[in-house]
Amino acid sequence: MSPDRTPDEDRSVPDAPTLPFDSPRPDGGDGAGGRWAKAREEPPITRIPPIEPPVPTTVESASVNPTASIESSATTAARPQVRSAPRCPGCDSVVAAADRFCESCGRELGARRIALPRSEPPSDADCDSCGGGLYDADGYCRGCGQLRPQPDRFEADLGAVSVVTDRGLSHARNEDSVAAAVVDAADGGPEFTVIAVCDGVSTSEDPQAASGAASRAGVDAVLAALAEGRTPAEAAFAGLAGAAQAVREVAVREGHAPSCTYVSAILRGYGTDTAEITVANVGDSRAYWLNQDVSSSGSGRVIASQRLTVDDSYAQALVDAGAMDEEAAMRDPRAHTLLRWLGADSGPKPWSDSCVRTFRTGGPGVLLLCSDGLWNYRPDAADLAALTTGADRMDVARRLVEFALRCGGSDNITVALAPVS
After folding, report:
1. DSSP per position, 226-280
2. What is the mean pLDDT of residues 220-249?
3. Are residues 266 and 131 in the same domain?
4. Cross-strand bridge partners of residue 111
5. How many domains does the chain have?
6. Range with the lowest mean pLDDT among 90-94, 260-264, 336-340, 370-374?
């Protein structure tokens, strides 16, 4: 999330509505809100039926959809990047996607996992700033305290899910994080795919530590809950609780709580005609269902591309309260304020009861999780679907990131794609 946010205490808004929860505090202090997010637009969601939802959808609303115009021939310069492989959860050694056991420690690999960006430096790496000190496990120099520079891009392919995270063009560091895991079934195919994408709030301290802790802990908690036989919805709530606790435990100075957004998805039924997707979110990182063909399911219903999550933002609250239409709401000086986030200053349960929802797809498509560094430029689900054509999902994920860079790359960009066929 962009750091260029300014409080609005010197601006007056006529006829401010009474919202169904406490209004955000413009000073960024404790309470519901106060996190200043970058300018962003909400996608218009037509009121189509959700994707065969066994759990009713609550609030959905439309938004302004300014689409960035770019030249199709535009290119971006080559960017330093790291291609990461799955790692053993026991010893952190690199493993192959098809491995059932870790060759280093012998641990059975019940799940293939990845977490990006990877921050640990080589054990013998000298500090790039002072040239003397070595980096600690969190990537800080033991001598001068500077954070080790990262490559611009990290990416990984677990087969069932492809992930890319990029620094963008304006930020000095990547404050997004993504974690994913694939749990294999007895027949060798994926039984569950679990993904979490988090976007650090730049006005908080150490936002990249918050997003990294949340994404990893969220996926770990979901996997543990699924292993206990809990339902995907119960596992999604467990992931929220685990992520929130992990962010609260990030050590910083008193009064400078690290913060981040959170969106997760549990995909069950990969490679089948009917898949089940359970999503959870806090903040404005999003999950989408994308269907390029808009084909009918077996029941004859058209499965349209659509957003699966609802942003926790002030603009959406204005629309949901009936105070103004979407275009007017997006002009409100408080429009881009986050109303919910993960952090030590956000309370023990910083999510709404309706933030976990389950959908059945009924046909082929792509599950997309992303930070606002992507959807700011293409908030509409149908427009995003048009960008995700092609059989190579790793290539599609890269193309989405390159698209955001060509549009300006004003924020960190994170994309996770899981196909359903």
Report:
1. HHTT--HHHHHHHHHHHHHHHHHTS---TT---EE-EEEEEEE-TTSSS-EEEEE
2. 96
3. no
4. 183
5. 2
6. 90-94
Cα 33 to Cα 334: distance, rounded to the nearest angstrom: 10
The two structure tokens encoding residue 260:
């981040």
pLDDT band at 414; cut points 50, 70, 90:
very high
Q: What is the pTM of this model?
A: 0.73
DSSP run (H or E) holding 405: helix 393-406
Amino acid, res. 163: V
Residue span of the structural domain in which 406 resides? 35-118+151-420
Q: Which two tokens stand for residue 263?
A: 């969106």
Query: 393, 139 in Cβ contact below 8 A?
Result: no
d(CA 11, CA 16): 12
Q: Is residue 19 part of a domain?
A: no
pLDDT band at 71 (very low <50, low <70, confident <90, very high): very low
Q: Which amino acid is at 137?
A: A
Q: Do 281 and 309 touch, CB atoms closer than 8 A?
A: yes
CB under 8 Å to 73, separation ≥6 — which residues? none
Tell me: the pLDDT tens digits for 114-160?
Answer: 999 875 544 456 677 787 667 776 677 888 888 777 789 999 999 99
Tokens 């942003």 map to which residue? 311
Predicted confidence (pLDDT) at residue 170 exceeds the cutoff of 90: yes
Q: Are strands 413-420 and 35-36 parallel, antiparallel or unpaired?
A: unpaired
* SS3 state at 306: strand
Buried b / exposed e along 8-46 (16+ C-beta atoms within 10 A): beeeeeeeeeebeeebbbbebeeebbbbbbbebbbbbbe
- Same domain? For 59 and 180 the reply is yes
With respect to residue 74, please indicate whether it lies within any of the assigned structural domains.
yes
Q: How far apart are CA 176 and CA 198, in angstroms?
A: 6
pLDDT tens-digit profile of 280-293?
A: 999 999 999 998 66
CB 310 within 8 A of CB 353: no
Q: What percent of the chain has pLDDT over 90?
A: 46
DSSP 384: H
Please give the distance of CA 360 from its chain centroid, rounded to a whole number: 21
Helix (H, G, I), strand (E, B) or coil at 225: helix
